[in-house]
Amino acid sequence: MRKLWVWIIVALALVVFTGPFLWSLSLSFQQPGDVFEWPIKFIPDPATLSNYQRLFTEIGFPRWLFNSALIALIVTASNLFLDALAGYAFARLRFPGRDWLFLALLATLMVPNHVTLVPKFMALNALGMINSYPGLIFPNLVQVFGIFLMRQYFLSMPRELEEAASLDGCTPFQCFHRIILPNAKAPLAALGIYSFQGNWNEFLWPVIVTTTPEMYTLPVGMAMFRYEYQVEWTMLMAGAVLIALPMLVIFLSFQRLFLQSQWGGAVKG
Amino acid sequence: MKARHQEAWTAYAFLAAPMAVLALSTFGPILFSFILAFFDWHLLKGGPEFVGLRNFLDLGRDEVFDIALKNTMVYAMGVVPAQTALALLLAMAVNRAIPGRAFFRAAFYVPAITSSVVTSVIFLWIYAKTGLLNYLLSQLGFAGEDWLGSPRFALFSIMALNIWSTSGYFMIAFLAGLQAIPKSLYEAATMDHAGRVARFWHITLPSLRPTIFLVLTMGLIGAFQVFDQIYIMSNGGPANATTTMSFFIYASAFHHFRFGYASAAAIILFLVILALTLVQKRLLEERTGA
């Protein structure tokens, strides 16, 4: 009897949390004319793929998809490499000012991103990087959160690894590449997922930095589409589904890793 | 000694590239924005002009900034407690939901990993005058409203959307926190004839204090930076009803091109967040007597 309230809450929440997505999926397969008057059929009849087709033929969706994928991949790769480098230095190497520098890094996490918006824009403007791939990529090459994550991991890494490495006689960089990094696959995978997801979904910076449609990323393109054209709900929903799909697939495939990247070792199983 | 020296140089080599990027992308901009706030820098009118505190004084007299401040407070005070409570409720339910815990955990988390554009677009349709919400209400015999077009409801509609998106995210933190509470505590309390409410109040809540603090802090910082949904759904309107401080900063900079003014507003936003976080820390520390 006591368990009843658990299942009622859970069932209600399931409807509320997944309902909107299910409806957007439904709308994406409906004929445009069928979605202006209620009752709208939840199961589309007749169903159509034309909304998805039109995304690729009538608006700049393919280009936006390419931009998003390219930028997310480059930034993620850069994050993995540079964040690990810095994280290792903070975790295992001693140098003057280490703790102060790390504290300064942590402090930047508290600063709202709107504070750096204007200076970043002005700097990139002066360098002529507005509305370009470098402009979209450069500010995100290093993530403070990633440095924090990697440092946490390297702090807990057994020292035998480095002792074995130093016996090997490799230079610090070599040791890092050949021995340390390959043993950090788990945090690197988690960081990679976190970074890719953050970049794929990013909106504020791309919407400011891009000024022409060919440079839009997916989120920006869809936002502009929502304002520019007469609201074509079915196409908007098809676009929404396609943007959400990669993240959903990654999340469902790597759930534990995904949750661990955001919440650390607190997540079990 | 030489080894120490070498170690330091290795560290510098490792840190060179990452710190160079951060200097240009984070440290530099943060410092520069503090300087920029004291200048009048209109992008289209040429160079900067030092104006001291005038930007801040103008902000004090700016009606729209006043509205933005008020909207931001309403938004934060509404969203943060609601999403925290909902996250805790969901965590407690999911924690007891065996079988299927992993399934529900995933289902409730999906809004958090979905792009803000996706959720905004979906809810644009749900909130439309002929959208899902009004249809459901009409089926129950209630009149529909203009959820985004009416100044009375617009901000609350966006607040509801954000509570929906982020509760599942914070639920994970509470799930981990709940699972860390030793069952023996509850067993001992039950043997002392403590009721369900008493067990929650005296065992669950105190044990979750650090998690609650984490969720509140993260929630607060996030709530003050809400932007995407406002840009996509209402563009600050109607009549500034959904203009928050973050949107005000964006509009000052990229609609009105007043860079110095926007920076001053951003500094105020930062100080407000800092103050609230410190207050919160103090309040929670007092409770523990730490």
Description:
The complex is a heterodimer of chains A (269) and B (290). Chain A has 269 residues and is mainly α. Chain A is built from 14 helices and no strands. The longest helix of chain A is centred in the N-terminal third of the chain and has 32 residues, at 61-92. Chain A is globular, with a radius of gyration of 23 Å. The mean pLDDT of chain A is 88. By secondary structure, chain B is mainly α. In chain B, helix 3 (63-96) packs across helix 12 (245-254) and helix 12 packs antiparallel against helix 13. Chains A and B meet through helix 1, helix 3, helix 4, helix 5 and helix 9 of A and helix 1, helix 3, helix 4, helix 5 and helix 7 of B.
Keywords:
heterodimer, A: 269 residues, mainly alpha, 71% helix, globular, B: 290 residues, two-stranded antiparallel ribbon, 1% strand
